[in-house]
């Protein structure tokens, strides 16, 4: 099928750029060195391509993502890199499930939910989840006392991954990982899980990198000079043309907006409404013309869509369900 | 069921505030004076409450919304207040479907798709869809020549609805509607469809008002002194607590972010990540505590969720599917 047959707005994944991203990453971080994060794409079909590239362990952000990956037969080694207080849906899955814990309550929830293994989540500088490094050993002991296997530690240097200055990224990653390794000395276990697309080649302390954005790539990461290419766009149709501007059928419900407006090559985006982009085209356009809109943030864009289409030029090669949405 | 049984993040609709909003609006604009816009809630169960309040005609923004409303038996009089270039899915529906047109191409698409009736969409000041007022008569003639019934005109004063100064809202609404009535003189038909929640009691020129936000209400509209109350929130759970801040399991994929960060009563939101809000609570909190988060923009928030729960205090009265998502 040709993209002209698609109902718009429609998520497109450029097959060549996507394959390039997978290849570049698996060359840098082969096999278990990468634990791809599925939150960026929420799509088991895409994850199966990452598995085919040699990565059998995955990172998830929600219980639904873990469930979906298990159901899709991608449950060799699933890490829920997030705290949960109700782990009951995880305990029965036909998969190896490891959950992040950072408090007595989340250790208790894992044990109560029938989860068998945990990582101690350590705060390495980002004010979000994670225990204090000096508390990690105590939580590991608590987890073991409740029958949980403790596989090691995780700590996300999310305050570092987007910094444009590479030397600063290196310095702060090193400082973050020193905290994580100190915690690991108290915790034990084999795994030191950390990192993201912005530190994939900097974070040499972690045993595995939790990168997700690299596969479809984000505009924000695009400024870091990484070898990954923006593969995702939203196909939209011009539905109205007026002197000086035109309107596309793609709006707030098709675009993650927390990083601001999307961009359109050769055109200026004026504003975005629920189902519209008003923009000034660089050259005259007609009703029915189609544009590829680049969202400012991939993850919350994908989460609005039911499916994404893998395309080569204007040809739709495959259509993938975005099947890990919701909670 | 109690809200404590809900998986978070979860959309909550306060039943009393919602009923208040419906009552306040149907008293001001009874029956066909209001054509509720379903884009704000994307939920046929909620729309059926609006129908029970006496409003049998509805406004939609997408083909999917029209399809879903027809399938739910709410198809007495559905207006797709948006331009489409492929109307084929509309022609066969068991419903009265009227489509907005603003160009030769959209007139042609309506005729080709088997749609029977149209409104001429007129630009009344918002740079988005709509033909020039002086072109409306020509498009109406074109539509009739293709066998389409022309029911009148529509024109959305979207540049006016959010202005905080009521006198300015009144003045600009008047100017917008003068343009629309001039177009209507050329077009004919009974319907002058316009307006929104911000001009529901100002726009006395339109025969029907397309308000949608009033039912669940938006923070932005909350500054206008309207008689509608914010009925929508996102229930979230504290999953991690650190000195000075805590983390909720509700993030960018559960919140429309184009109007900025959500708010939490008595607390300060620091930042929002894919699945987290980091916030400074006003009083000490514990892991497992729950908060109601007020999103900055209702419409793109609802579009992320599979369902919403009608609650009275902490009791879940009904659960409604958000069944009009997608395109």
Topology (SSEs and partners):
Two copies of one chain form a homodimer.
Chain A: E1 10-14, H1 15-28, H2 44-52, E2 57-60, H3 63-71, E3 77-80, H4 88-91, E4 97-101, H5 104-112, E5 117-121, H6 136-145, E6 149-155, H7 166-187, E7 191-194, E8 208-209, E9 232-242, E10 245-248, E11 263-264, E12 267-272, E13 277-281, E14 290-294, H8 298-302, E15 307-312, E16 315-321
Parallel strand pairs in A: 1-15, 2-3, 3-4, 4-5, 5-6, 6-7, 7-8
Antiparallel strand pairs in A: 1-9, 9-10, 9-14, 10-13, 11-14, 12-13, 15-16
State the helical fraction of chain A: 25-40%
What number is the mean pLDDT of chain A? Answer: 97
CATH class of the largest domain in chain A: Alpha Beta
**Total domain count of chain A:** 2
Structural class of chain A: alpha/beta
CATH superfamily of the largest domain in chain A: Alanine racemase
Tell the overall outline of chain A.
elongated
Radius of gyration of chain A: 21 Å
Largest sheet of chain A: 9 strands, mixed
Question: Please, could you describe this protein's structure?
Answer:
- Two copies of one chain form a homodimer.
- Chain A is α/β, with parallel strands linked by helices and 327 residues long.
- Chain A has two domains: 3-11 and 229-321, Lyase, Ornithine Decarboxylase, Chain A, domain 1; 17-214, TIM Barrel (Alpha-Beta Barrel), CATH 3.20.20.10.
- Helices cover 25% and strands 25% of the residues of chain A.
- Chain A contains eight helices and 16 strands.
- Chain A has helices spanning 15-28, 44-52, 63-71, 88-91, 104-112, 136-145, 166-187, 298-302, and strands at 10-14, 57-60, 77-80, 97-101, 117-121, 149-155, 191-194, 208-209, 232-242, 245-248, 263-264, 267-272, 277-281, 290-294, 307-312, 315-321.
- In chain A, strands 1, 9, 10, 11, 12, 13, 14, 15 and 16 form a nine-stranded mixed β-sheet that branches.
- In chain A, helix 6 (136-145) crosses helix 7.
- The longest helix of chain A has 22 residues, at 166-187.
- The first copy, chain A, is elongated, with a radius of gyration of 21 Å.
- The model of chain A has no long low-confidence stretch (mean pLDDT 97).
- At the A-B interface, strand 9 of A face strand 9 of B.
């Amino acid at each position: 099928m040709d993209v002209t047959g698609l109902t718009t707005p429609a998520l497109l994944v450029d097959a060549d750029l996507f394959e390039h991203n997978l290849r570049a990453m698996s060359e840098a971080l082969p096999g278990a060195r990468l634990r791809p994060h599925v939150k960026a794409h929420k799509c088991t079909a895409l994850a199966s391509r990452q598995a085919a590239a040699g990565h059998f362990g995955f990172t998830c952000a929600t219980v639904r993502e873990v469930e979906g990956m298990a159901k899709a037969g991608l449950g060799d080694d699933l890490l829920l890199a997030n705290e949960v207080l109700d782990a009951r849906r995880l305990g029965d899955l036909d998969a190896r499930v490891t959950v992040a814990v950072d408090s007595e309550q989340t250790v208790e929830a894992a044990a109560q939910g029938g989860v068998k293994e945990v990582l101690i989540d350590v705060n390495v500088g980002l004010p979000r989840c994670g225990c204090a490094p000096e508390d990690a050993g105590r939580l590991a002991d608590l987890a073991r006392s409740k029958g949980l296997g403790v596989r090691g530690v995780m700590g996300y240097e999310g305050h570092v991954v987007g910094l444009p200055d590479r030397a600063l990224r290196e310095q702060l990653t090193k400082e973050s990982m020193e905290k994580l390794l100190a915690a690991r000395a108290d915790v034990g276990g084999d795994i030191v899980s950390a990192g993201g697309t912005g530190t994939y080649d900097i974070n040499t302390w972690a045993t595995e990198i939790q990168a997700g954005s690299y596969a479809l790539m984000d505009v924000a990461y695009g400024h870091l000079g990484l070898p990954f290419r923006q593969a995702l766009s939203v196909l939209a149709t011009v539905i109205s043309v007026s002197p000086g501007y035109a309107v596309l059928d793609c709006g707030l419900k098709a675009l993650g907006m927390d990083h601001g407006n999307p961009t359109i090559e050769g055109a200026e985006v004026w504003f975005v409404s629920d189902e519209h982009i008003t923009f000034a085209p660089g050259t005259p356009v007609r009703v029915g013309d189609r544009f590829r809109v680049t969202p400012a943030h991939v993850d919350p864009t994908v989460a609005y869509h039911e499916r994404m289409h893998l395309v080569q030029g204007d040809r739709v090669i495959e259509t993938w369900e975005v099947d890990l949405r919701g909670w």
